[in-house]
Write a structure and sequence with these properties.
The complex is a heterodimer of chains A (about 350) and B (about 230).
Chain A: E1 2-13, E2 16-27, E3 31-36, H1 42-49, E4 57-62, E5 65-66, H2 71-78, E6 81-84, H3 95-105, H4 110-124, H5 139-152, E7 157-161, H6 169-186, E8 189-194, H7 197-203, E9 206-211, E10 214-216, E11 223-231, E12 235-239, E13 245-249, E14 257-263, E15 268-270, E16 283-293, E17 296-302, E18 306-311, H8 313-319, E19 326-331, E20 336-339
Parallel strand pairs in A: 3-8, 3-9, 6-7, 7-8
Antiparallel strand pairs in A: 1-2, 1-4, 4-5, 9-10, 11-12, 11-14, 12-13, 14-20, 15-19, 16-17, 16-19, 17-18
Chain B: H1 2-16, H2 20-53, H3 59-69, H4 74-85, H5 100-124, H6 128-136, H7 141-151, H8 153-168, H9 172-178, H10 188-198, H11 201-230
The chains are: A alpha+beta (about 350), B mainly alpha (about 230).
Chain lengths: ~350, ~230
């Protein structure tokens, strides 16, 4: 059963449509990563999923039931979902006082409150800060306090807006570990937004991509502005940043002009050495990054623009491209998508 | 120059000797100002909170009106309240004119806009993330409001202190509605005006010293709370 479902969900601010989702299903008990550029609608979607914002139109369902956007109904739903802000604020009281806030609302007795506070502080590694002033915490500690404050009320869903964007590497690792553990040990569903594709790939069971408020089936990081120059008999010509030209099968590109192009990393392949010269609709560049990501090898190639692709480990072992090696890339036309807006 | 130094010396001696007449005037001034500030805070803080925290039609108009009322001259208030409290006025039967109560009424009217406008400013300065955080942790409207209030508390205290500073130093309302009657409605500012008219500066300067000291204490407190509000 879906934890959330959304159909034709839109949110309009003034005259601007910031969210326009045709269909979305989020499964219970899993970690979902929400990727997208600034202004893609990630935070707006998260606010709607946290029942803090109301969509302009469309249907939203939670736990198998349609959501009615009325005050008392939303307040009941909010008791099951907690949103942790990108830059969380701490109430001007102690660390324990902050955690106690949600517990008091739920009329939990004093002894139980003390037990829960100790438990969540241990979970986020802030045991020594129980009676410290919450305003005196560092950015990373405040982020962990916000996490503890959210976990204290044992939510069904934890929504995190860019949980690691404003903290140092050490705190990033701690936060990722906390998210993994609460999902695994407590079964809490997690939805988080991020710009960091590596974080999303490492943490999320499923990644959703938002672009200009719409869910797109793309790897998000291979999104470039480009100029469609025109066409000849066989190809559409597309000028990429850095002056590289991409030849696409005729009819794929929109009318000449500036537009945005998305290349699905799964549709980019290393051209075998023998066929490199034939990779006419492909690109040439040098390998600048190689990382293991799940069961695949992630490669970033500098071809004037930085293109990400995934390679099967067996194929990687065969070709063995190293950092600095020049490679040719073949882009499958079905992985190319022209996006709305500039 | 001699005149100034002589007045100042005599005034200081008067302050140090704790002259009974001077103490009575200071006492009445503090009583009237404290009471009017308290009443204005009881009305202005909730009103300011309501306007800042609630979306309603005419909200901007209400804020504009309040900001305009900040510049309301004390003599206009004095005249208006006089119209109500005079023998032929709507509230003439209450026999309040030329009593300290009439001064309190006038001063409350003077500073309710001050408290309200500064409360709105204090609440508006609170980051919206506090509201969002309280709500996502399950707080209803009332408890969310209390969270905002708590976070804005230093700004609100600063608003009340600023209002007190306004009434302790005003002269128009006290003169028009109190009448400057010795032993009954004579406040520091009205007494200073009278002593100036009489050409007797010792008490006027002594009261000036007390008033400036009170002002200094208020400003120190104001700075302290405004500093805390920005933290």
């Amino acid at each position: 059963m879906s934890l959330y479902y959304a159909r034709d969900l839109t949110r309009i601010h003034g005259r601007r449509t910031v969210l326009a989702i045709d269909s979305l299903d989020i499964e219970s008990g899993r970690i979902h990563g929400l990727l997208g550029a600034n202004g893609a609608g990630k935070t707006t979607l998260l606010n709607i999923l946290a029942f803090l914002d109301v969509p302009t139109a469309g249907h939203l369902g939670f736990d198998g039931r349609p959501v009615r956007f009325s005050g008392s109904h939303l307040r009941r739903l909010r008791r099951q979902v907690v949103l942790v802000d990108q830059h969380p604020v701490a109430f001007s009281t102690t660390v324990a006082g902050n955690i106690e806030f949600g517990l008091k609302i739920r009329r939990i007795g004093r002894r139980q409150r003390v037990r829960i506070i100790d438990e969540v502080l241990a979970l986020v590694g802030l045991e020594g800060f129980r009676n410290a002033s919450a305003r005196g915490l560092s950015g990373g500690e405040t982020q962990r306090l916000a996490m503890a404050r959210a976990l204290a009320v044992t939510p069904k869903v934890l929504l995190c807006d860019e949980p690691t964007s404003s903290v140092d590497v050490e705190n990033q690792a701690a936060i990722v570990d906390i998210l993994r553990r609460i999902n695994r040990e407590r079964g809490i569903s997690i939805i988080f937004t991020t710009h960091d594709r590596q974080l999303a790939a490492g943490l999320a069971d499923r990644i959703l991509y938002l672009d200009h408020g719409r869910l797109v089936a793309t790897g998000w990081e291979n999104v470039f502005s480009c100029t469609v120059e025109g066409h000849d008999e066989r190809h559409d010509r597309c000028l990429l940043p850095g002056g590289r030209r991409l030849l696409l099968p005729r009819g794929l590109a929109p009318a000449p002009g500036i537009c945005r192009l998305s290349i699905d990393p799964r549709a980019v392949q290393l051209a075998p050495p023998a066929r490199e010269t034939e990779a006419e609709q492909g690109l040439r560049g040098r390998v600048v990054l190689l990382t293991a990501e799940g069961e695949q090898v992630r490669m970033v190639v500098d071809a004037g623009i930085r293109i990400t692709l995934f390679i099967d480990p067996a194929r990687y072992r065969t070709l063995r491209p190293g950092i600095g090696d020049e490679v040719a890339l073949a882009v499958q036309p079905q992985g190319i998508c022209f996006l709305a807006g500039r | 120059m001699n005149f100034l130094t002589d007045s100042l010396r005599s005034a200081l001696l008067l302050v140090l000797s704790r002259d009974p007449e001077m103490l009575e005037i200071v006492g009445l001034s503090l009583k009237v100002s404290c009471l009017s500030t308290l009443l204005a805070a009881l009305a202005g803080v909730p009103l300011g909170f309501f306007i800042a925290f609630t979306e309603f039609r005419g909200r901007r108009l209400a804020i504009t009106l309040l900001n305009t009322l900040l510049a309301l001259p004390t003599v206009v208030i004095g005249l208006l309240v006089y119209g109500f409290l005079s023998r032929h006025g709507l509230l003439g039967s209450l026999d309040l004119l030329y009593t300290w109560k009439a001064m309190v009424i006038g001063q409350v009217i003077l500073i309710v806009p001050v408290v309200t406008a500064l409360t709105i400013a204090a609440i508006s300065r609170i980051d919206d993330r506090y509201r969002k955080t309280a709500m996502t942790l399950g707080a209803g409207r009332l408890r969310t409001g209390l969270v905002i209030f708590r976070e804005a508390r230093f700004g609100i205290v600063a608003a009340v202190i600023a209002a007190f500073g306004r009434v302790i130093s005003e002269v128009g309302i006290s003169m028009m509605l109190g009448g400057n009657i010795r032993g009954f409605t004579r406040t520091m500012t009205t007494a200073m005006a009278l002593e100036y008219d009489k050409g007797s500066f010792t008490l006027a300067v002594a009261l000036g010293i007390v008033l400036m000291t009170i002002s200094l204490v208020m400003n120190v407190l104001l700075n302290f709370f405004q500093g805390r509000a920005r933290m």
